[in-house]
Amino acid sequence: MYQRKQYYTLFSRMQEKRRFIQVITGPRQVGKSTLMKQVVNALGIPFVFYPADAVPATQLNWVSDCWEAARAKMRVQGLKELILVIDEIQKITGWSEVVKKEWDTDTFNDVNLKVILLGSSRVMLDKGLSDSLQGRFERIILSHWSFSEMRDAFGFTLDQYVYYGAYPGAAELIGDEDRWRDYITGSILDATINKDILVNEKIAKPALLRQAFELSAAYSGKELSLTKMIGQMQDAGNTTTITGYLNLLSQAGLVCGLNKYAVDLARKKNSVPKHQVYNNALKSIYCEKPFPEAVQDRPLWGRLFESAIGAHIMSYAYAGDYMVYYWRTNPGCEVDYVLEKKGRVVAIEVKSNDSPGNKGLAQFKAQYQPYLALVVGEGGMQAEDFLSIDPMTLFK
């Protein structure tokens, strides 16, 4: 079975003496549980696994019960060490305080119980970790899969990666596009909205949230104002509501609205958003043409290609701790993606085979003197190479 690079990080940490809780986080269906199982099976250390998916959010004692069961197993079987794994821990309200109490109790009593926590809700996890567990955990962030990973694990071509995206669970379904779309819609989109957003947030209009996602995903790689979005929606809404919904969808790792790059923070926040999915599968499920026809439609393929580059950039943004924008002064003078981290700016222009000439990158360089200006695609860095790297390396 294919092993991602995070496998070696977790394997190494779990071999060390008990020091930190290991927290594995990332969007749904990127392989968090698979990674954990690969590691614990390879270690040969006994482990117990408890999923919180079906546990009521208010059942706080459930976490302590899992811990006590693990301790009991160690005593009964005379184990010197044991790994406790809890999946979707963020679904339990107040989980972090209980984890802190139980972890500190084991530390005081010299109980060699190692702990792995998994979670797909980034915001809920971050809040708990920052509130109660400072100094007690290490984080392993799983992004969506890169092109090289999908190629090496499933034999994907570049065109297949651009169209079908990077969900490993859907890779073997691409021969049947209806089945593939059903999987993306049900196992990823519906599960994320229903289990990660609606359960944890008070949403007045769930149908409007879904419409906001569908429009944003369909327009991935393009600008669309919130006012125009509202005009295309069946349900009533306002720009404040839609902005809030887009923020929730971004926190869940589905889709986001990129602000226009500017030195002035206010101008950034007040710009028309450029919509961008985190995984191109989320755009392609709304594509009007199947894969063989989409490849031949050059304008359509150009839009899918640009969205795929943006999805790769956004997928790594959280782990890389960099911000992503776009830049435009007028039509034909734009930069597709602008990355910013600690004062360094990287400008990226995406060029498919039929992309028109664009003087935007040269003008951006003259105006802002970026740390790096890069063309991806025709006449620049090959898409296969860019889609295989961690964009964080562009800042080094």
Notable characteristics:
single chain, 396 residues, alpha/beta, Rossmann fold, 6-stranded mixed sheet, 17 helices, 17% strand
Radius of gyration: 22 Å
N/C terminus separation: 32 Å
Q: In order across it, which strands form the biggest sheet? A: 7-6-8-9-10-11
N-to-C order of helices and strands: HEHEHEHEHEHHHHHHEHEHHHEEEHEH
Backbone structural class: alpha/beta
- Residue stretches low in confidence (pLDDT < 50, at least 5 long) are none
Estimated helix fraction? 40-55%
Name the beta content range: 15-25%
The shape, in one word, is: globular
SS element count, helices: 17
Mean pLDDT: 92
When the domains are counted, the total is 2
Count of distinct strands:
11
Biggest beta sheet attributes: 6 strands, mixed
Describe the protein in words.
It is a single chain. The protein is an alpha/beta fold and 396 residues long. It has two domains: 5-141, Rossmann fold (3-Layer(aba) Sandwich), CATH 3.40.50; 147-395, no CATH class. 46% of the residues lie in helices and 17% in strands. The protein contains 17 helices and eleven strands. It has helices at 5-15, 32-43, 61-77, 95-108, 122-132, 147-154, 158-164, 177-197, 206-218, 226-231, 239-251, 265-269, 281-284, 291-296, 298-320, 360-368, 383-386; strands spanning 21-25, 47-51, 82-87, 113-119, 137-141, 255-260, 274-277, 323-330, 333-341, 344-351, 372-377. A six-stranded mixed sheet has the order 7-6-8-9-10-11, with helices on both faces. A five-stranded parallel sheet has the order 2-3-4-1-5, with helices on both faces. β10, α16 (360-368) and β11 (372-377) form a beta-alpha-beta unit. α3 runs parallel beside α4. It is globular and about 70 Å long.
